Amino acid sequence: MTRRLIIRNGSFVNSYLPSQGDLLIEDEKIVGVVSTNTEVWPDAEVIDATGKFVLPGLVDPHTHIQLDTGIYKTDDDWDIGTKVAAYGGVTTVIDFATQFPNMTFQEALEHRLKEAQPAHIDYSFHMIITTLPDQYDRALFQQEMAALVQQGITSVKLFTTYRPNYYIDDDALLSIFQLFPPSMVVMVHCENDAMVSAATQRLVQQGQTALSNHAKARPPEAEYEAAARIITLANLVDNSITPYIVHCSWSKTFELLQTLRTFTDQFYIETCPQYFWLDDSLYLTENAAHYIMQPPLRPAEDVKELQFQLPSFDVVATDHCDYHIEQKLAHQDFTKTPGGITGLETSLQLTFTLYKQLLQKAPLSFGEFWGSTPLTSLDDRIILGRIAKQMAEMPAKIFGIFPQKGALMPNSDADVVIFDPKPTLTLKADELHHIGGYSPYNNYAVYGKIETTICRGQILVHRGKFVGDIGRGRFVKGVLSK
Ligand SMILES: [Zn+2]
Fold first, then answer.
1. Which pTM was predicted?
2. 171 CA to centre of ligand 1 in angstroms
3. How far is the CA of 247 from the centre of ligand 1 (A)?
């Protein structure tokens, strides 16, 4: 039997639909929009969205659900992790499959596909490469990459730091770039390993391993150098791979990368709410352990600059990672504390709130992005339009799952978020749904509330209640762009 759902009288924030109306959903797909109260489907289920905004379900291309780094593991699983996502309006995650030593890419992918079975939302993976082709056959490597693309995997991830398992030097980067299929998206964690190692060793030798030293061990210059190097190296290689700089944390890195656009525009830059909401003074507080992450938080004045760059980033993702507070507190030594924070549930509210605050503070500095629109009640629509681009449409496009995902348009998957911009709320760690036992944003005030999250036509969250079915999430096949 066909299931019909109408989202009545909502405001749509993307350019594929008229700005207002009734959104029609049939089974798993969006059918279209009719003007409100047109009699179309008398027997359909109806959700009233009057006074609310309707966004495409968010696509978070940087999460670590049920993470196992080889050293640390998170306690969550795909049931918990994707429930948290649904509460945050996220209907697709692109997580990671790690090729551990002695594992083929195929085995790594199958391992993660199995783990993801309980998912409530849709998902895909980036392949983390740890064994380089020099250590085995280059032709075989290329075959295995091609096989991944065939199966719908469009991206890999590399690291410029973390010896010995993940680190890749320049020689290896250049040679591996040549072996990727054309237009493969190559995500890179950018921190110059020598700079990080030298700073860390110096602190260790001085006995300065308290958590308050974490940011000093990973200077922002390490990111700056590595990010520019990656774009430059990739530009030398002729198979037109697409670098994707994950979690850009420093305003000067972003500035530098923008200047590189004069000789290549084929790359993307991601940032995360922690880098535009939080600064390194938090390492001096009693909650320092909450904020251990790589790269670390940056000085307040740089965070302020990054905030004003926010509209120009291609993607806002979370780097969600649900370590338990006991793991975070166990050592009180930054070299031993697992790095990573949760963020899937709060990213939409945090990003919306920051944009609102910036517009209130300095509307003119956004002229370029918002046009000459004066501050009116339309601002929420403009902000949410930008958010829909950075948190749904762009990630879906970059990783080859658009317009199935990332857009409200006829024939797209019915992945929908109903967002009420009006409430002012205080985030409370114990009201959020991850299991780590803390939130980096405890007691932070935010604007807006996620009313309803729908994935492929099924309501997952409605007015604070989770109503999804375990295991309904599906692997989404990506297609490489030409
Ligand atoms: Zn990450």
1. 0.96
2. 24
3. 8
What Å distances lie between residue 441 and 32, 235, 343, 431, 461, CA to CA?
37, 39, 9, 12, 21
Q: Where are the domains of the chain?
A: 57-363
DSSP helix/strand/coil, 47:
strand
163 Cβ contact partners less than 8 Å away, ≥ 6 residues apart: 193, 197
CA of 63 to the centre of ligand 1 (A): 6
| Residue ranges near ligand 1 (ion) with Cβ within 5 Å | 319
Distance 66 CA to ligand 1 centre (A): 12
Ligand 1 geometric centre to CA of 167 (Å): 15
CA separation, residue 314 to residues 296, 388, 390 (Å):
21, 11, 6
Neighbours of 330 (CB within 10 A): 13
Instruction: Output the six-digit token pair for 302.
Output: 């740089």
> How close is the Cα of 62 to the center of ligand 1, in Å?
6
CATH class given for the domain over 57-363: alpha beta
pLDDT by position in tens, the chain (length 482): 899 999 999 999 977 888 899 999 999 999 999 999 889 999 999 999 999 999 999 999 999 999 998 889 999 999 999 999 999 999 999 999 999 888 999 999 999 999 999 999 999 999 999 988 777 789 999 999 999 999 999 999 999 998 878 899 999 999 999 999 999 999 999 999 999 999 999 999 999 999 999 999 999 999 999 999 999 999 999 878 999 999 999 999 999 999 999 989 999 999 999 999 999 999 999 999 999 999 999 999 999 999 989 999 999 999 999 999 999 999 999 999 999 999 999 999 999 999 998 887 766 555 455 544 544 445 898 899 999 999 999 999 999 999 999 999 999 999 999 999 999 999 999 999 999 999 999 999 999 999 999 999 999 999 999 999 999 999 999 999 86
